[in-house]
Amino acid sequence: EVWNEAYRKYVSLDVETVAELADATVADVLDAEFPDRAVHVTELLRRPLFLDLTLRYARSWREVPENDVEFLSQLWTTLSRDDRASRVGADLPKWKVLEELATRQVEARHMAVDREKLERSLGPGARPTIDRLVRERFICQTGGASKQVRLVHDLLDAFNIARRLLGTPEPVRRKFYEGM
Questions:
Q1: 3-class SS of residue 31
Q2: Rounded distance, CA 103 to CA 28, Å?
Q3: How many CA atoms lie less than 13 Å away from 81 in the CB half-sphere?
Q4: Alpha carbon distance 94, 72 (integer Å)
Q5: What's the CA dihedral at 19, 22, 27, 29 to 10 degrees?
Q6: Helix (H, G, I), strand (E, B) or coil at 140
Q7: Which residues pair with 148 in a beta bridge?
Q8: Is the CB of residue 42 less than 8 Å from the CB of residue 15?
Q9: Interval 156-166: pLDDT, tens
Q10: CB within 8 A of 80, min separation 6: which ones?
Q11: Cα-to-chain-centroid distance, residue 66
Q12: What CA–CA distance (Å, rounded) separates 95 from 51?
């Protein structure tokens, strides 16, 4: 509905409807990936993004949250915790890259930001951490002369930006909003 009312008249794209995954399909995937524990099929896990993230990150979770905000909060906690063990040498923590990415996205008012500028703003250790997040399919990068980076899904970008803004002191937050 929203697409048809707000965007269809401005963009000439064919609409491809993607059905939610069936409960049986999700159950089979979860049983194969987590044979020693019960992970319940929920509405959230019938959405491909959340099923994929569960398969990649939920091994250490006691249970998989049933709503998207709790799920994404748990995911960010996992990224921060797992990061300590996977860092090499002078690599930056993933949370630091994600936080700076959100700051750059807000400043640019755009989801995709210039990778070189992001690396410069983070300093030494940024490149290997960004490369790791790209390999882990958490950050995607466009080709071309000016490499742009962003998170792999709009929902992840929006959550990351919201976390950044909510964790920012009020005077700084007001500055972000002034330009909007």
A1: helix
A2: 39
A3: 11
A4: 15
A5: -40
A6: strand
A7: 114
A8: no
A9: 999 999 998 88
A10: 93, 94, 95
A11: 17
A12: 22
For residue 162, what are its two tokens?
């919201």
Sorted by sequence, the CB contacts under 8 Å of residue 21 that are 6+ apart come out as 45, 46, 47, 48, 51
Q: Which residues pair with 151 in a beta bridge?
A: 139
- Digit-coded pLDDT (tens) for 106-152: 889 899 999 999 999 999 889 999 999 999 899 999 877 779 999 99
**Per-residue burial over 56-65, b = 16 or more CB atoms within 10 Å of its CB, e = otherwise:** ebbeebeebb
The set of long-range contacts for 161-169, using a CB threshold of 8 Å and a minimum separation of 24, is 161/102, 161/105, 161/106, 163/76, 163/99, 163/102, 164/99, 164/102, 164/103, 164/106, 165/102, 165/106, 167/99
- Model-level pTM? 0.79
Measure the CA dihedral 101/107/108/110, to 10°.
60
Please give the single-letter amino acid code of residue 86: S
